[in-house]
């Protein structure tokens, strides 16, 4: 097998933050390389580099070399990547529904023939050679074993077919050498996914090098020749599939990250009282769909909700708070909780710190004290002066409460009148927490509390949550993409996969167990044990 | 030294940012016009008196922009909805033969009743067309004006003060001096600064304007007002805090419509005439322009923007005309110039609209 693509010592940093460190990848002709890693491991950045995406070059380029068939190449734009024979099949389909399959496959690469007008006015007005376009499309579809008519419109085709049309478009490009599949099976049903994997194998037999990005371990074991594991921007290892197992891949993917060590005792007095009981909850949050979750939260615990992005972990808290449409049964504090009613949820004693700090969490143009007091004023009628039917805000009370919160939570600011938008991420997060605490909640839902804030601030926020739990006995449901952070403060961790609870683990469970659960491949070990 | 210079520069920038570029440019233009006017011998006292008078007349109409902008529905281009409510109320008060302050009081009470109903329906309409409020509002204003043209003709009013000398229907303009409504507020407690030819202060009208300003200012410091503002700036934040955004948008537009209705009553008494038919059609635009020039954006407006904006906008409009007439003596350009200047300012102000949200 001859060497097709090699990435040598590729590194990339975004404004001083290293997101890729010395990545080395080799891809041979006709080989299928699986790329796996948690969210934020650097998969997308690596692919952006390979495709010369503008985001890479506008942020100062990257270090290292890319070689294609032994020649060093510089890929400055997606168009250049296309000309070099690198293609990509996107997770979301980039197809025009009203066009036929042929037109979609040939879009912007139409075969044309001259006519009278074009002889006068130039090449742009030549007519389409529909016959040879159809022939080309047919050829590409035949390679994929698609016996579907090429003149049908794309609108109304099943999802699986659309995926194949995307692939057909890529292989129809002359001289395609490398094809990247980005989570291609995420939207497909099981049989469709199987067809797709067959097609991938078939393409590789024709000598195309394939990079297959997925988190489904069983598919990787099934289809790939070798697997490269990324973690936190580092190249962990590249292994031949026959030398490894799903368990090992899972373990390597999660790894033990020594960021925040767990302090104190793990075995706090477990309380038997269930404070929140969720039964068959469905939440229609776009991109984070929850498809029937059962979960019991005990009084006084910190429960962690983890899982990969897009699996639905963020939907749970948003659904409980009524931010996205949801259905199911929820019992909170002995009473049934009405869903789709944000006001009712807050009144019953839930408070929510949103993952979307700037969008949902804060009024950026408003003062810190105004932000902190807002919800309590609206829901609990705190901080108001009542003059008959008129209720005006009580600036003095808001000021003193704002100052108290600023000192309690150690919010770094110039004054309580500073605009929330001008604070740093960590301090903004503390303002969000302060606003939730002002509601005096029985249960606090916190989503992605450390997203986008620096490492020192992360620890402060986590310590704050821990303090609230230990000193005030507040029950906390914390959702986070960062497993290490969940493991550092939670009493138990629920892993969500494909909108359902995959399992519950203790914070000190093994890495491999977390990895397998997060990728929904638990059955792989259960199967091998029995 | 260099540090000091840079410091000064950034201070200058801060000042521009704080006041807003449109406000500064139009303000500077006004001052230039005043200087030219002064050098060619136009009485400053007359210009300033006119400016104050017109600002007082238009003030409440401009104030009507604040609630709708704060609630996130954008400037209230459907101001004619409120205006026809006010006109309708005034016409009924005349029909019932009220005069003087009785007429004024009945007009305002009726106007509030009509405007609450109309504003509620209009708010419901806006909730159905989220995302294109400004266009829909403009055409709502046009439609209601056209509809009311029919109403002015068809409703069998009997009072002789309003009818044509022959035929049916109401007159285009109804004189208010016949019923003692002409400048009833403007002349209340009015006084001159600097003798008979000095500056005329229409105290009563200004007091009503400032009273409305204080009410709106207080309202946006109340629980309900704060909720409306939050829903306007960040609907998702407000929703997550359990706020009913749609209800608040309706509330804000009711308030805006009521202000529009009261605004036209104050305007009409200052003008001395009630103008019907097509008069309300284009009245939203000067009001929108004034609040934008005062420093408001399409998503954020304060009472201070209203006061500054209406002064500068009306000041420029009233000063530019006599000055232009003097400069181009002998020609009859005044009406054309008025259109060019007014619409020019509106166009400029609208280009300064910053979109809502982020």
How would you explain this protein's 3D organization?
- The complex is a heterodimer of chains A (530) and B (358).
- In chain A, 36% of the residues lie in helices and 26% in strands.
- With 530 residues, chain A is of the alpha/beta class.
- Chain A folds into four domains: 1-84 and 177-244, P-loop containing nucleotide triphosphate hydrolases (Rossmann fold, 3-Layer(aba) Sandwich); 93-173, no CATH class; 259-349 and 441-530, P-loop containing nucleotide triphosphate hydrolases (Rossmann fold); 354-440, P-loop containing nucleotide triphosphate hydrolases (Rossmann fold), CATH 3.40.50.300.
- In chain A, the strands form six sheets. Chain A has a six-stranded mixed beta sheet, sandwiched between helices. Chain A has a six-stranded mixed beta sheet with strand order 18-21-22-15-23-24, sandwiched between helices. Chain A has a four-stranded antiparallel beta sheet with strand order 2-1-4-5, with helices on one face.
- In chain A, β4 (63-68) and β5 form a beta hairpin.
- In chain A, α6 crosses α7 (159-172).
- Chain B has a domain at 60-281.
- Chain B is 68% helix and 3% strand.
- In chain B, the strands form two sheets. A two-stranded antiparallel sheet of chain B has the order 1-4.
- In chain B, α2 runs parallel beside α13 and α12 (284-293) crosses α14.
- The model of chain B has no long low-confidence stretch (mean pLDDT 86).
- The A-B interface holds A 321-323, 341-347, 352, 354, 356, 359-366, 374-375, 377-379, 381, 384, 390-393 and B 218, 221-224, 226-227, 230, 233-234, 236-237, 239-244, 300.
């Amino acid at each position: 097998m001859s060497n097709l693509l090699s990435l040598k010592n590729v590194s990339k940093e975004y404004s001083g933050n290293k997101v890729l460190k010395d990545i080395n990848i080799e891809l041979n002709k006709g080989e299928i390389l699986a790329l796996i890693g948690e969210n934020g491991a650097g998969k997308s950045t690596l692919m952006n580099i390979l495709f010369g995406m503008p985001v890479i070059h506008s942020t100062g380029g990257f270090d290292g070399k890319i070689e294609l068939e032994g020649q060093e190449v510089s890929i400055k734009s997606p168009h250049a990547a296309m000309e070099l024979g690198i293609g990509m099949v996107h997770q979301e389909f980039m197809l025009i529904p009203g066009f036929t399959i042929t037109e979609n496959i040939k879009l912007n690469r139409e075969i044309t023939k001259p006519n009278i007008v074009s002889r006068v006015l130039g090449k742009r007005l030549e007519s389409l050679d529909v016959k040879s376009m159809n022939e080309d499309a047919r050829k590409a579809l035949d390679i994929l074993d698609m016996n579907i008519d090429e003149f049908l419109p794309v609108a109304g085709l099943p999802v699986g077919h659309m995926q194949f049309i995307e692939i057909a478009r890529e292989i129809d490009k002359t001289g395609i050498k490398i094809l990247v599949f980005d989570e291609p099976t995420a939207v497909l049903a099981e049989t469709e996914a199987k067809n797709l994997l067959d097609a991938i194998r078939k393409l590789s037999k024709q000598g195309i090098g394939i990079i297959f990005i997925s988190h489904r371990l069983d598919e990787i074991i099934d289809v790939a020749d070798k697997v490269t594991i990324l973690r936190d921007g580092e190249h962990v290892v590249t292994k031949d599939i026959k030398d490894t197992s799903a368990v090992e891949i899972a373990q390597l993917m999660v790894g033990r990250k020594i960021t925040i060590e767990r302090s104190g005792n793990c075995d706090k007095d477990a309380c038997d009282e269930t404070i929140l009981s969720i039964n068959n909850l469905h939440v229609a949050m776009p991109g984070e769909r929850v498809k029937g979750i059962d979960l019991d939260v005990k009084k006084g615990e910190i429960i962690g909700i983890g899982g990969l992005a897009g699996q639905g972990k963020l939907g749970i808290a948003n659904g409980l708070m009524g931010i996205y449409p949801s259905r199911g049964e929820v019992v909170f504090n002995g009473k049934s909780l009405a869903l789709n009613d944000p006001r009712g949820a807050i009144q019953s004693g839930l408070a929510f710190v949103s993952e979307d700090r700037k969008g949902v969490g804060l009024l950026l143009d408003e003062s810190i004290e105004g932000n902190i007091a807002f919800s309590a004023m609206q829901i609990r009628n705190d901080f108001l002066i009542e003059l008959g039917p008129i209720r005006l805000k009580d600036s003095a009370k808001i000021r003193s409460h704002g100052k108290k919160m600023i000192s309690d939570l150690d919010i770094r600011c110039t004054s309580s009148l500073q605009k929330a938008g001008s604070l740093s991420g960590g301090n903004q997060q503390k303002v969000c927490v302060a606003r939730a605490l002002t509601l005096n909640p029985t249960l606090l839902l916190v989503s992605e509390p450390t997203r986008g804030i620096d490492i020192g601030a992360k620890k402060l926020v986590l310590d704050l949550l821990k303090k609230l739990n230990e000193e005030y006995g507040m029950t906390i449901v914390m959702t986070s993409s960062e497993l290490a952070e969940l493991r550092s403060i939670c009493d138990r961790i629920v892993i969500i996969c494909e909108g359902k609870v995959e399992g519950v683990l203790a914070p000190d469970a093994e890495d491999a167990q977390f990895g397998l659960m997060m990728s929904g491949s638990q059955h792989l070990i259960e199967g091998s044990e029995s | 030294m260099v540090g000091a210079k840079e410091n000064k520069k950034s201070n200058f920038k801060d000042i521009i940012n704080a006041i807003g570029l449109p406000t500064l440019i139009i303000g500077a233009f006004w001052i230039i016009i005043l200087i030219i006017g002064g050098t060619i011998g136009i009485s400053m006292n007359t210009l300033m008196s006119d400016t104050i008078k017109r600002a007082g007349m238009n003030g409440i109409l401009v104030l009507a922009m604040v609630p709708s902008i704060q609630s996130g529905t954008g400037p209230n281009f459907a101001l004619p909805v409120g205006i026809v409510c006010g006109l309708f109320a005034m016409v009924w008060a005349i029909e019932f033969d009220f005069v003087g302050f009785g007429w004024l009081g009945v007009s305002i009470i009726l106007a509030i009743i009509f405007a609450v109903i109309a504003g509620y329906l209009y708010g419901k309409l806006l909730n159905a067309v989220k995302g294109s409020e400004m266009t829909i509002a403009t055409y709502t204003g046009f439609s209601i004006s056209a509809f009311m043209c029919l109403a002015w003709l068809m409703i069998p009013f009997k009072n002789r003060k309003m009818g044509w000398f022959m035929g049916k229907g109401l007159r285009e303009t109804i004189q208010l001096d016949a019923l003692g409504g002409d400048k009833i507020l403007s002349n209340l407690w009015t006084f001159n600064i600097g003798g008979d030819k000095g500056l005329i202060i229409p105290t009563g009208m200004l007091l009503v304007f400032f009273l409305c300003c204080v009410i709106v200012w207080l309202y946006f410091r109340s629980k309900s007002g704060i909720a409306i503002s939050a829903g306007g700036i960040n609907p998702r934040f407000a929703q997550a805090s359990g706020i009913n955004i749609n209800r608040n948008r309706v509330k804000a537009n009711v308030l805006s419509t009521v202000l529009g209705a009261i605004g036209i009553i104050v305007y009409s008494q200052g003008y001395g005439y009630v103008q019907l038919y097509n008069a309300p059609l284009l009245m939203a635009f000067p009001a929108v322009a004034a609040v934008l020039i005062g420093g408001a954006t399409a998503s954020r407006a304060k009472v201070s923007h209203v006061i500054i904006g209406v002064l500068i906008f009306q000041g420029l409009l009233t000063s530019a005309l006599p000055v232009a007439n003097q400069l181009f003596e002998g020609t009859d350009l005044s009406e054309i110039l008025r259109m060019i200047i007014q619409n020019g300012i509106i166009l400029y102000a609208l280009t300064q609209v910053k979109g809502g949200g982020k």
